[in-house]
Amino acid sequence: MPLLLLLGMTRWTADYDKVLIANVESDLRIAEQYLSRIMRTTGDELAGVADSVEFAAVLDAPPERQASFFAGKRQALGLDFLTFVPEGTEAHWPVIQSALNGQAATAIDLFGPEVLASFPGALEQQAKIDLIPTRAAVPTDRAAEDRGMVVHSAAPVRLNGKAGALVGGILLNRNLTFIDTINALVYLNAITGGDRQGTATLFLDDVRISTNVRLFEDVRALGTRVSAEVRHAVLEEGQTWLNRAFVVNEWYISGYLPLRDSFDRPVGMLYVGFLEAPFSAAKRKAYLTMLAAFAGVLLLSVPLFLWLAKGVFAPLEQMTQTMREVREGNLSARNGVRRSSDEIGQVAGHLDDLLDQVQDRDARLRAWTGELEQRVEDRTAELREANAKLEDTWRQLVMSEKLASIGEITAGVAHEINNPVAVIQGNIDVLRDTLGAGAAPVETEIALIDAQVGRINSIVGKLLQFARPDDYAGTEEAVALAPVVRDCLVLVDHVLSRADVRVQTDLAEETPPVRIGRGEIQQVVINLLVNAVHAMEVEGTIFLTLRPETRDRDGALLIVRDTGPGVPAALEDTVFAPFFTTKQAEGTGLGLSISQTLVQRAGGRITYRNPPEGGAEFSVWLPAA
Fold first, then answer.
1. How far apart are alpha carbons 292 and 295 in whole angstroms?
2. pTM metric for this prediction
3. pLDDT digits (tens, 9 = 90+) for 508-535
4. CB atoms within 10 A of CB 546
């Protein structure tokens, strides 16, 4: 129980600290969103002025009117400076260069004292902050921070034939309105009823340039610096700090967000945090409460547990001994504990009853053993018969799939083998006999017609060869794969033409012959070609590669790759499963399964992968004859 209490308190403390960190992270996001809104609003308002008719009129006005216009707009928009940069001016800041290129931009930038002095309003004096020695900060010999952190915005100007950029910004040094607004947004109506005393700070590098952290009651901690640990994590490593941190003179649950300028360099930090002390006090109070409750539970429970244990351990030890004897084979062992109304006595009695049942069932099981052995023998014979029937059914499925392939092919070439073939051939012979020598001017055309008729006869012959009923007889022969692949291309030529699919072949003639039935390898190749055409649906390319490849022995490798969508990664393991198909409205789903069986029966291997260049790729390797 003490260990469980310690574990619970540790876990509760960790969860409590996580809640505090999540709280300060949420506060930091609110502050970040407010800063982003200021930047976005400044950019939008500046873009509105740059596109206004009033500004277009001022561009052609005398300098004094322009100065009056800029002063009025600067005050109306709450800016610390506002100026116009003509096109062609060398722009040091990426924000201005972006606007000169026609793209509005807003960023946080650091201005040196000489740049700040060029603007009206003594901004260089507002920016200068004397440094105050701070415990745990990185040592420095600087006495003051004279750079200014500025929300810097520029909008492109294309008015009255004049081009340039309208540039404006807000100096954040000593900008207490900005930091107090963040503090009010983050910590207004705190859920802890006001105990969560929050602070917000804007850092230039590691120096507080705007903050509501107090050195004394009415003195803000401007010029103090962040600790070296936080500075290293946020400014040097670019991390967001979400942890406890020592702030000036108190520990705070703190969040520090790195700020980057238009050059993407870390230039400062945005901080929010709340006092840790109230929450530490709440945790201590909770610890004391849990310890007091635990002590009370112990005082009440220990005597009761000792009394209960006396009546529990002895019967349990007897039951343990009984189970040990049963495990060693003595099924007649019993507890012999006098039955009582308590739970332990009831369990002991039930255990004896169960042992009686076990002994009885053991005897009956031994009697049933002979009968079960006979039943198993009978079922084994039935399974052998069912297996033979399954083999016959498989052979029928193979032939069914092959007939389906033939149907796919013959559907496209039916028009080539009808009566018009004989009519065409007969009329050509009549023309040649009738014209005699007069047929010389069209002899090329007549020969072309003869060749096409011969091509039809070749297709029919190869189709009949593929459809021989004894192809799946299990016979094998030494087959050269290159001629077989070419014959298959002739058989599926109409399928390729109809889908506008191109075929690129690289068939190495030195590939060794393989030992497989010619009809079986034709069935595999045609199945892969037809599947590739269906996968691409409309125009595409099939790449056929044939080359020698030695694995555990010499052999030949045929690769069929298409430019279709491929098979989703989640379905790759089921490509060769029976009845797997992506053609929901057609196909049996047995083509690839049968092809795998035919290739494996010949001692080869068929595999699938999704190549990096896309599509699907099937590889068929067969051992040399």
1. 5
2. 0.48
3. 989 999 988 888 888 899 889 988 888 8
4. 20
